[in-house]
Design goal:
Nuclear Transport Factor 2, Chain: A, 6 helices, alpha+beta, six-stranded mixed β-sheet, 198 residues
């Protein structure tokens, strides 16, 4: 799939996503090739997980590790070409919040005849901001990936923001119903740190 195929499929967000999942799931005949295809699919899916862990934890270098040096990123603010422009985009986004939590779902991976891969996913993200406000954002990813020196990298990513809403920053637990007394005073707050809490 040449870069122009992404453009052909992008008539709309749904046109792009549905066009990518309409691509056939290729099946190799030899056991070794089938195993390699499974390993490649797991590596592509793992790349998405690494991206969310690095980005949500404000690790700019880790976030950038999933992108190829010549990557193209298209998001609601515009298009960013090359690793330095993409790095500036993520540096800005990370600077606006304390942390976030992304959940990527409906992941579909297809391999192309030229050896590249495409991956689509939906995402929901909760962002926690220095002001104490909380927002939820949701949308889609459409990625083209290439395996270089044995490692998969994103060479093109399209991100949509389909909704954004503010959430109430309040304790969801009923204070009138006290929790049972713990057997030890250590809590999960002790190991996540102040910066990762509201």
């Amino acid at each position: 799939m040449a870069d122009s195929t992404f453009t052909i499929l992008q008539k709309s967000m749904w046109g792009l996503l549905q066009g990518l999942v309409r691509l056939p799931v290729t099946r190799a005949k030899e056991a070794e090739a089938r195993l390699q295809r499974l390993e490649d699919e797991m590596a592509v899916r793992d790349l998405l997980v690494r991206y969310t862990y690095f980005y949500d934890g404000n690790d700019l270098d880790g976030t950038m590790s999933v992108f190829d040096d010549e990557c193209k990123l298209v998001n609601p603010r515009g298009s960013y070409f090359g690793k330095e422009a993409i790095r500036a985009n993520y540096k800005h986004l990370i600077s606006t919040r304390k942390f976030s939590f992304h959940a990527a779902t409906n992941v579909a991976v297809r391999f192309l005849d030229d050896g590249d891969a495409v991956m689509t996913a939906f995402y929901n993200s909760i962002g926690i901001y220095p002001s104490g406000s909380v927002a939820m954002v949701g949308g889609t990813y459409a990625d083209k990936l290439s395996k270089k020196s044995g490692e998969w990298k994103i060479i093109e990513r399209r991100i949509t923001y389909n909704y954004r809403t503010r959430l109430a920053a309040e304790n969801p637990f009923d204070a009138a119903k006290p929790a049972p007394t713990p057997t030890h005073p250590e809590t999960s707050r002790d190991w996540i740190g102040r910066e990762e809490q509201m």
